[in-house]
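User: I'm putting together notes for a lab meeting next week and I want to include a structural view of one of the chains we've been expressing. I don't have a solved structure, so I'd like a prediction I can at least talk through. The sequence is below, exactly as it appears in our construct file.
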Amino acid sequence: MWIHLSNESKEPLYKQLKVQIKQQIIDGTLAGDTELPSIRALAKSIQTSVITVKRAYSELEQEEFIYTRAGRGTFVKSTDKSILQEKAEQQFEEEANKLFHLGGSLGLTLDEMVTIIHRLKEENNE
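Assistant: Thanks for the context. Below is the predicted structure for the 126-residue chain, given as structure tokens.
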């Protein structure tokens, strides 16, 4: 599991951690029933507080991406691929909604936003 937290980001550290773990579960990097590092071990390895990791794990557990077994550890929840795909689409929709509202507040039309998305897609496919 690879995690990179940025103190420069506007996103809180726990949220950065949560999003990165969630993404690795959705894309299959972290398979079902994979044991995650303990809260203390992960906090130490990514040089953050135990509270940060605990909050990220707690939210991931509430969203049913992971589960904890007392005395055994924290694990990735085994989930059907179609459910993971649905969660991935939901995550994308949430981010797209934020961008749509940002674009609107900046005075961009829908066509301008779509043009930007197409340009970015072309740039990333090079």
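A couple of points you could mention at the meeting. Residues 81-124 form one domain. The helical segments are 13-26, 39-45, 50-62, 81-105, 110-124.

User: Perfect, that's what I needed.
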